[in-house]
Amino acid sequence: MGKKIEKIRCDCTVIHEDIVNKVKILMPEEDSLLDLAELFKLFGDPTRIKILWALSESEMCVCDLAFLLNMTQSAISHQLRLLKQSRLVKNRKEGKVVFYSLDDEHVKRIFDQGMIHVKEKLM
Amino acid sequence: MGKKIEKIRCDCTVIHEDIVNKVKILMPEEDSLLDLAELFKLFGDPTRIKILWALSESEMCVCDLAFLLNMTQSAISHQLRLLKQSRLVKNRKEGKVVFYSLDDEHVKRIFDQGMIHVKEKLM
DNA sequence: TATACATATGAATGAGTACTCAAGTGTTCA
DNA sequence: TGAACACTTGAGTACTCATTCATATGTATA
Prior knowledge:
2 copies of one chain form a homodimer. The first copy, chain A, has helices at 11-15, 17-26, 30-43, 46-57, 62-69, 73-85, 106-121, and strands at 60-61, 89-94, 97-102. By secondary structure, chain A is mainly alpha-helical. In chain A, a hairpin with a 2-residue loop joins strand 2 and strand 3 (97-102). Chain A is elongated and about 65 Å long.
């Protein structure tokens, strides 16, 4: 006979009911958390984090970034597109050159906060 | 004849040489940036960001998290393994139950800094 | 107008990864 | 001791995505 009944809820969550319920109520909206994950995902790529860091120092054109990071213009351009879509960077055109810069003063703050963590965990 | 010569360096980087060089010199070590990207990548997943947020409110067991996020224990356990490897979370055993908690006070700060950004960009 | 330059973009590919499933370990308790 | 429980783990799969390649767009310049 069908012995294996799928557990809907384990015993722990009943024992810890107060805590789990409290956390459940405090939990941010699903959408906020998805947006947040999306944001951090953008920071979570070596190329993009380098681009963001570089732009935090100075506005630069696609060409400069490609040279600085030793990558193709195409690769850089694709990443800049993502960063622009999420409004982490903005651009201005000057003739045939497109200069990119950070669109947000928070970018550097998020970057710095992460770096503090990384440096500490080294020890 | 071979007309197409691969451009090593575009004209822009020569024109902008001072800026590019300055940024190049200031650039953090490759390893630091890779570690940083790795850190943010951990934050850049819906499941993991929810886990981190939940643990910032209270220590919880695997079972509680699975119930809270409506996911399988296995999925949660796999993610906790990654978070533990990177020392973002730690655990303690109490009988057969394993309680997880944040291993670092920076986690919440990084989370909050990101949330500020997300909330602002909504407008 | 033709050419070079700066950038953008679409398709293809290869690498990485989140989850599922099945099986395992370790603990408690009847 | 054995059954239930909490959790872990390895393999497999479906999916995402960063880069490359080829091509397209737009601008300046000779």
